[in-house]
Amino acid sequence: MAKKRKAARRKKSFLASRTFLVASVVVLGVIIAAASFFAFTGDEKPKRPVRTKPVVTTEMQVDVIVDNLDYTPRDLTVPKGATVTWKFQDDLPHNVTEDRGAFESDTLQKGDEWSRVFDTPGTFYYYCTLHHIMLGTLVVAE
Ligand SMILES: [Cu+2]
């Protein structure tokens, strides 16, 4: 009788250690996944959104509306020498900051505007430093 109980206890302890092993592997997996996630996103610049409704224009004066935590159009191509004006219409303050520092507006409020002449061809990725979900692309054509 006592022998049987002892065997049962041994079986239970084996099960417990196996459960512990599985739990350890799961916890370790979660830690590795979290660590790699933070390592990957840590100092990286914001990711570009999927290109939606790209606008290509030959106009020399082009507006980008800043509203609802977004730039519209998000993806704009203008001719070399064009003036782009960001018009701030959101209730929240925003700015226009190029990823590599090519240009940077002040943080502006509803009703404000910020203009810049683009004489250098290239692709400029910009975002709002206050809201990293706000991502825009400006292409200055040759
Ligand atoms: Cu913002």
If you had to describe this structure to a student in words, what would you say it looks like?
A five-stranded mixed β-sheet has the order 1-4-9-8-6, with no helix packed on it. A four-stranded mixed β-sheet has the order 3-2-5-7, with no helix packed on it. It has one helix and nine strands. By secondary structure, the chain is an alpha/beta fold. It folds into two domains: 1-44; 55-140, Cupredoxins -  blue copper proteins (Immunoglobulin-like, Sandwich). The chain binds copper (II) ion (CU). Residues 94, 128, 130-131, 134 line the site of copper (II) ion. Copper (II) ion binds at residues 94, 128, 130-131, 134.
Q: Layout of helices and strands, plus pairs?
A:
Layout: H1 2-41, E1 55-56, E2 61-67, E3 70-72, E4 75-78, E5 82-88, E6 97-98, E7 113-118, E8 122-127, E9 135-140
Parallel strand pairs: 1-4, 2-5, 4-9
Antiparallel strand pairs: 2-3, 5-7, 6-8, 8-9
The structure holds copper (II) ion (CU).
